Amino acid sequence: MKRLAMIAALLLLCISLPASLEARHKVPRYLNKESTVDMSNMNRIFVGWVDLGADDWALYGYENKTDWADIIGSLNSSFSRNLVPGRTVASAKDKGDENAAGNDLYIKFSDVRVDYNNYHLILSVHFIDPRTNSEIAMIPVRPYYGNDWGLKNYLKAALDEVGTKVQVEVTGMTPQKKKN
What we know:
By secondary structure, this protein is α/β, with parallel strands linked by helices. It has one domain (30-171). The protein contains 3 helices and 5 strands. It has helices spanning 2-25, 65-81, 151-171, and strands spanning 44-47, 88-91, 105-115, 120-129, 134-145. It has a 5-stranded mixed β-sheet with strand order 2-1-3-4-5. The longest helix has 24 residues, at 2-25. The chain is globular and about 75 Å long.
């Protein structure tokens, strides 16, 4: 009888453990337009810097601040490159670059945090009219899940999810999946 109870307990543990591990990373994808502002006619877009905290280099296991700052620069560059296809996109060169003059839309990121334990990049997105410097829409602070191995790769995957949300808000449509 003890043997049967032990087997049942182990079986229950084996069934529940993967479900609990999956729930840890379960973050919804935000594929619906939430803002009421029509941004579909905004063709020149300035994308702000996603500040991943250059001073946090030791926290993520990097040898020095320069190596981590290079990773942050690389992630920001690749993130903004194809953010909104069919639009002219300029991106911030560094944390202090907020020169959105001459653009129709400025996309700014704030409240940026990295949750390394759960593979989440947490941030809020602000859509700003550069002519009036007023916020026209905002996506509140929420986590974006990066399903990949290693800090840099999981942050890249999480930024891809942020990019998908930005595309939905700007174009009003869910992006099509890329064909391999």
